[in-house]
Amino acid sequence: MVNTDKKQEIKIIPLGGLGEIGKNMYVIEDDKEIVIIDSGIKFPDSELFGIDYIIPNYSYLVENAHKIKGLFITHGHEDHIGGIPFLLKELQIPIYAGKLALGFIRSKLEEHRLLREATLYEITEEDTITFSSMEVSFFRTTHSIPDSFGIVVNTSMGNVVHTGDFKFDFTPIGPAPDLIRMGEIGRNGVLCLLSDSTNSEVPGISLSEKHIGNTIIDVVKKQEGRIIFATFASNVYRLQQVINASVLTNRKVFIAGRSMERAITLGRELGYIDAPDSTFISEFELRSLPSHEVTILCTGSQGEPFAALSRIASGRHRHIHIIPGDTVVFSSSPIPGNGLSVNRVINLLARAGADVIHHKLNDIHTSGHGAQEELKLMITLMKPKFFVPIHGEFRMQKMHRTLAIQCGVPEQNTYIIDNGDVLSITEGNDVAAVTGKVPANPVYIDGHGVGDIGRSVLNERKILAEHGMISVFLLRKDKVAFGKPQIISRGFVYVRQSEQLMDDIQTLVTSLVQAPLGKFELEKKIREALSGFIYEQIKRNPLIITRIIDLK
Amino acid sequence: MVNTDKKQEIKIIPLGGLGEIGKNMYVIEDDKEIVIIDSGIKFPDSELFGIDYIIPNYSYLVENAHKIKGLFITHGHEDHIGGIPFLLKELQIPIYAGKLALGFIRSKLEEHRLLREATLYEITEEDTITFSSMEVSFFRTTHSIPDSFGIVVNTSMGNVVHTGDFKFDFTPIGPAPDLIRMGEIGRNGVLCLLSDSTNSEVPGISLSEKHIGNTIIDVVKKQEGRIIFATFASNVYRLQQVINASVLTNRKVFIAGRSMERAITLGRELGYIDAPDSTFISEFELRSLPSHEVTILCTGSQGEPFAALSRIASGRHRHIHIIPGDTVVFSSSPIPGNGLSVNRVINLLARAGADVIHHKLNDIHTSGHGAQEELKLMITLMKPKFFVPIHGEFRMQKMHRTLAIQCGVPEQNTYIIDNGDVLSITEGNDVAAVTGKVPANPVYIDGHGVGDIGRSVLNERKILAEHGMISVFLLRKDKVAFGKPQIISRGFVYVRQSEQLMDDIQTLVTSLVQAPLGKFELEKKIREALSGFIYEQIKRNPLIITRIIDLK
Predict the structure, then answer these.
(1) Contact B279, B252 (CB under 8 A)
(2) Are A454 and B201 within 8 A, CB to CB?
(3) Which of B45, B475, B491 lies closest to A475 in CB terms?
(4) Given pLDDT bands bounded at 50, 70 and 90, which one contains residue B360?
(5) Under CATH, which architecture does the B210-357 domain have?
(6) What are the φ and ψ backbone dihedral angles of A513, each rounded to 5 degrees?
(7) InterPro entries per the record (chains A, B) (predicted)?
(8) Taking CB atoms and an 8 Å cutoff, what residues of chain B touch A340?
(9) This prediction's pTM
C-alpha cells in the first residue's frame, strides 16, 4: 500500500555543532531542496594525537548533492567557515556570506587554490534569496566579529530561524542588533528556532564591547612603557578599540602575526577599521620610537605555541623582545583546554620582565555569546513553536532548553538532538520527531590527509605516546634463528641507563626464538612474553612489533 | 691565604616548589646540620607523555646525607608528602609530622613496604625538636586539610619561618589559626619568611570553610533525589560537613572510591570525623533505601578517568548508576589542565540524566590558600627581614613579592629564586644572595622506573604521538637486497585507506636499496628520502626506523 497523498515534511539535520563547541554545520531540507548553514572546523583536544582539525562527515551532502541550493554563512569565525575548503573539494556549492566573512573565505580559498572555481555571493540584511521551494533571508545580530547574521529559512511549512552566534550588545562598536526585524520575524511566526547555547550556563547579561573599550583606554593611559596587546585577529572591533586607545595616547601600532596583519588589512579595505596609514609602523620605527609611543598588536592570546605572543615570550620573535616596562594585555579568556598554554606564556612573559594584565585581573575581555537573559530575549522575540538548542555541549543544550521552557515553549516542543539526528517536522503533526540518523562522525585531518586516521591509528598513537615501542626483527632458516634477534626501542627508556633491562630483554627473546614454531605463532609468542616481562619489570606497556623472515 | 675566622652562614635551598605548583621540598642548612621541609610529588601535564609523577632531584641530599637531621612535614597533601617513599628508598631520614599527615604517610609507606624501616615522629604545636645547632618548632595554621602547620627553624643566625600552605579561616571547622603564636614569633624576630604564593593573584580574602558548609546544607535540603558529592578525599573537614548535612536531612552516606574510604576510615580513627557507624551504608542498603535518604560521597572531582565519579558518569561503576533525580555536586574547582576532563564528566553526567552543580554555579568550594589580604596578614605578623615567596609559579611569586614590599619589606630583601638556587645569609651581610646552584631538575617516574626517562625519550614519544612511526628492515648480501624491504607502520595512517601511499613508499624504498652503499650510509639515505617523500605527500613527520642486516 503506497501512500500517494504524501504529507509535507521538512528536516533539520545538524552535521556538526551539537554536543560540542565547533565544526558547526546544519542542513535544512524539504522534498525538493537543501539549504546548508555554516561549514566549520573544530580544533582537537590533547588526546587526538597529531590531529590538526576536525570536520563533519560530508557524506549525506554528497549523496544529496542534487538538492543543495547553497551554503549560507552566519559569520566569519573558523568554527563556521573553516571547513569550506574541504567541502568545496567534494562539492560545488554556491556560498552566500556577509562582506567580512566573505573576505576571510576568499583569502582562505586563495590559499587552497580553490578561489577561481568558487561561486561566492555577498549578502546583507536587505537580501532575500529565493529558490523554488525555500527562501532565505537574514537579520543582523551582534557578536565578536562584524557582519554577524541570523538566518531565516522560509519553507512551505513555516520559518526555520538559525541565530548564528550572538549576544545582545546595545552599545556595540558596529551596528546594533536589529531587534525590530527580529520582532517582525517573531510576529510572522517561527516554526522552529535553532539558537546558540554557548553561554547558557552564564547568568545575567554579557558586558558590552564598549565597556571593554573603556577598560582598554584606562589600561593604555596608565602605562609608561610599551603595550603589547594580544587578542583574536578576527575580533575586528577589539582591534579598532586598541587602535583608538593608541591614537588617543599618541601611540603608533606595530602589527605582529600573519593572521593579525591579514585581519587589519582586510578590515581596513572593507571599511571595518578606521585608522590613517600613519598609525601603523614598521619594525624600523618600532626600534626607534620611545616606548611610551608604541603599541604592539599581536596574535597568541590563547597561548598558541607558534603565534606571535609565544614567540615574543620565549625570545624567538624576530623583531620583538621584552624590555623592562613592557605591559602585556591578554584581551581574551582561555578556551577550556588552553589554560596550561596560556599559563606558560604568562610565566615566560613575567620572567622576561613584563607586567601581565589578563582576564582575571580586569574587564579586559567580554564574550561574544549571550548569557541567560540574552538567550531569553531571543526566545521571547521569536516565540518559536519548536526549539532546538544548538552550538554547545550537552550541559549547555540542557540548560538552554530549561531557559526556553521558562520563556513559555512547551517542554515537549524542545529537542536536544545530536549530530546526525534527522529532526522531522511533518504536516499536521503537533510535535517534531527524530526520524532517522545520517553519518555525522568526526573526520580527522592530519597534514594533507583527510579521513585516513581514525580510532585505531589514534589508539596506536596513544600507546606510542605513553609507553613508546620495541621492535623485534628476526631471520630464520628452517625455523632456526639466523644471527641474533634485532631489538630496537624508541620512546621507551634511556637505553644507556637501562642496560640491564635491555640485556634481559635480549636474553628473553633469544631464548624464545629457539622454539621451532611457525612464523606467526612465534611472533605472537614473542609479543606476549615480552609484554608480560616488561610490565612485570617496570610496569609499562610499550607497543611491540615483531617481524620474522624465514629465509628460503 | 685561608680565612680561618669563618663567618656564620645559613643556606636556604628549594629543591622543588618554586616556579611551579607541586613537588615541594626545601632545605635549611647551616655548617653542621640540614633540616628538610616537605617531600612532595607533582602530577605531569599532558606534554609529559606517559609520565606518572615528577619528584625533585635528591642528589644534593644524598651527597649531604650525614648532615640531615630530619624531614619535617607541614601537612598531608600529595605535593608535600607524595615523594616520601622515593626519598626513603635513597636515604634513611626520620620524619616528623602532625597526626593526620602521619596517618597518610603510614598508609603510603605500608603500600610501598617501607613502613617497618621508617622512623616516624608525631608532632604538635607544643613540640620543639632540638638538634645541636638548630631547633624546630611549629605553629598551627588553617588549610584544606586538618593538622596544617607552619614551621620555625631556629638557627644560630635567627628564625627561618616556612608557612606551609595556609589561609586565615577565622571560622574554621577545626581549630583556629594560632595568631597569637604567630605574633610571638614575629616579635621574637624572623630572619627569613618563606610563604605560600599560590593565591597571591587573588584579591581579597578567601571564603571560610563554614560558609561552604552552609551552602552544602542548602543544596542538600533542596534535593529530593540522591546527592552524589565529589570532593578531595584529603579535605576531611569538607567530608565532615557533607556528613553533617546528610545527618541533618536524614540521609545515609555511601562512600565510593578507595582513597575516599581510606580518608574516612583514617579521619574517624584519628578523631577528625565525627559520625556514628549507622551513618554509613553498604551497597546493599544503597540499593534498598529511598533516593531522598541517600548521599554518595566520592572521589573524582577533578575528572580523573579512573576515579569513582568518572566511572559513575560513564556507567562503569559496579554499584552506582545515575538514576533520574540524582544531583551531582562538584565541591572543587578544576586545577588548570583538568578543565577538559571535568567538562567531559559533567557532560556525561548530564546525558545520563543527572543535575550537576559545580563551582561556577554556587559557593560550593573554597580554596585552601590565602588570598592577598591573608598573605599580607602573614607578612605583617612575621615582620621578616628577608622574604622568599614559595609554592608558586613565577607570576605568583612576583605578585607575592609585590605584596611583601607593600607591607614594608624592603625590595632588596625580597628574593624570587628558582629550584636549586642556594640562597645564603651570611653573618654581617645586610642582604642575602644566591651563591650557588645544586641539581634540581625534575625526575620523571613512569611505572616502576625512576629517572630512566628524560628529554630524549620524551621527544621520541612526542613524535610517535603526533605522527606515528614507520620501520624499514632490509636484508642484504654483498650489498645486494635479499628479498623485498619489510615496511611496518604504526600510528601513521589507516593502511587500507592509504594503499596508494603505502605502495609508493614501498616503491621508493625498493629503488633506494639498489644503491650499493655501506649499511649506515644507506640507512641514513632511506630515512632522509622517506621523510622528505612522506612530508611532501601528506605533511607528516613520522619517526622512521631503519635496520639493514648484511648477511655474511
Answers:
(1) yes
(2) no
(3) B475
(4) low
(5) 3-Layer(aba) Sandwich (3.40)
(6) -75, -5
(7) Metallo-B-lactamas, RibonucZ/Hydroxyglut_hydro, RMMBL, RNase_J, RNase_J_2, RNase_J_b_CASP, RNase_J_bac, RNase_J_C
(8) 45-46, 336-337
(9) 0.88
